[in-house]
Design goal:
The complex is a heterodimer of chains A (352) and B (264).
Chain A (H helix, E strand, L loop, with lengths): L2 H13 L1 E12 L2 E12 L3 E5 L6 H9 L7 E8 L2 E2 L5 H7 L4 E4 L3 H4 L6 H11 L4 H14 L5 H4 L9 H14 L4 E5 L7 H18 L2 E6 L2 H7 L2 E6 L2 E7 H6 L4 H8 L39 H5 L5 E3 L23 E3 L10
Parallel strand pairs in A: 3-8, 3-9, 6-7, 7-8
Antiparallel strand pairs in A: 1-2, 1-4, 4-5, 9-10, 10-12, 11-12
Chain B lengths: L1 E13 L11 E13 L3 E5 L6 H9 L6 E6 L2 E2 L8 H6 E4 L3 H4 L6 H11 L9 H11 L16 H13 L5 E5 L7 H18 L2 E6 L2 H7 L2 E6 L2 E7 H6 L4 H14 L3
Parallel strand pairs in B: 3-8, 3-9, 6-7, 7-8
Antiparallel strand pairs in B: 1-2, 1-4, 4-5, 9-10
Helix pairs in contact in B: 4-6, 6-7
Classes of the chains: A alpha/beta (352), B alpha/beta (264).
Amino acid sequence: MADQSVAVVTADRRTTPMLEVTGLGVALPAGAVVDRVSFTVRAGHTTGLIGESGSGKTMTAMAVVGLLPEAAVASGQVRWKSQDLLTAPERRRRQVRGREIGVVFQDPSAALNPIQTVGRQVGEILRRDGLARAEVRARVLELLARVGLPEPERQAGSYPHELSGGMRQRVMIAVALAGRPELVIADEPTTALDVTTQARILALLADLRDREGLAMILVSHDLRVMAHVADEVVVMYAGRVCEQGPARAVLDRPYHPYTRALAGNVPAVTSRTAIAEPLPGAPASPFERPSGCPFHPRCPMARARCATEVPALREIDAGEIDAGGAAPDGATPDEPARRRLSACHFAEEVGP
Amino acid sequence: MSVLEIRGLRVTFAGPRRSVREPRTTVRAVDGVDLDVGARQTVALVGESGSGKSTVARCVLGLVTPQEGSITFEGRPLGPVRRRSPGLHRAVQMVFQDPGSSLNPRMTVGAIVREAWRAHPSVAPAGDRREALARVLADVGLDPGVADRRPSALSGGQKQRVSIARALALRPRLLVCDEAVSALDVSVQSQILRLLVDLRDEHDLSVLFITHDLAVVRQIADRVAVMHRGVLVEDTSAEDLFTTPAHPYTQALLEAARTLEGAA
């Protein structure tokens, strides 16, 4: 392939979404935990799913790769390479999982096998692909080096319990990368880690994205992490989307009181802030979703209408405010990724 | 004057055995720590995992016996928990990281608080316990109706409030919080931090706040001690720590936290 055509293909891949999730729903016997969620992921870009416990962010991400609990039923569409993964035969889905789409699970100490060496687990998918032993070994060492594990030759022979949390998370990323995926789903990849390790893991993921055009779905409750890594964000509450749009714009100038409260509650080392006026109560459970807008019992702006009428996720005319610099590169203003959506009856009144 | 004084604290644990012929290796979790907590002061002990910060907390509570060093509370030595006088035992209380595992799932919230009173009859309310219970729960922002529920019926934030209520019921003088807000949702985290600050002022509490999260520290601490590999590398006022960190390790921690916050 000539260099020129590669460039054209890359440019095209960067603007058209590689993954399109439309109206995704996930129902458990006790109720719907994900309700009409739509978003896209473009090559070389990161889409962030933000939410607290019970928001449905992990269920949304896992529905994409078909790793839901047995009792869960997914509806809607998950278009991957012009095929709907939800209706695709299990054989095809297994092919996608781990190869085209890699997963970095939340808790590496639970996701890694404690009685297999690190090298064996990273090489599992390669052995299944029928690679020769020497090739598997070479590739495993290369992967471990790439995720920044010191002394890969020695560490390949260690067991997960011999490694620190940060190193285990690196191994988890190496496992996810082993199948050369085009998209990686990272579920709270840094939550259990110390700040210095967090910063290193995030830099590693950003580097893979920039150098190899890897697309990512990042699931996190941490707005600091999101602002740092994501291009577009979807803010979820009680299984529904309450706000979505370009990451910086959404976090800097939210159009939903919930996003505003979340952003206002983020403690920062850079400035001595008094503790922000906390939201009352706890995050709503999707099983006991309040009527109307699920956020209304905790919302400082709530009015009578909010308790009865479910707000639609609608486009907000952000006007000039977001115009400067907030567009993720490659996206034109008309593209979905550029649009600001909010599910608040009074979105226009939400100040920063 | 300091309420809590830690001097020359040293704790060693048995480490992995490298070979059957050699003796076990040892790990120095805490290697000579001096720390003071003043009256009505919130002191944050900050460090990454494995730095030894939780071991210091456990020594203060008497759950770990140090090899060397002394810990005194208002001038009286704090030994292992079994050898503490009831009064001393009561004065130092703890809030753990995970309320899901530090509250008995088979007891109601009311029973959990009453058990604390049964262990320390000297501070148990004389009159109507039901009313006293409601007062303690109200102190931590819980409805009296919560008393009849079990932890499984409560949210994470509510459970952490119950842990705080259980500690407060004994009218402690020093509260040791080990990562008390780390496991909570962001919107709930600030509720609990606010509660801790209010309670400190209302109940004349001193607080030793153990955490790895510098941003949380900035919101509540008066003093900050930074621990790294069992040693205190810096111990200064919160203001100085964030504006002019002296030790390279503190600088690295702050730098990493700032990177996470991005340009914001």
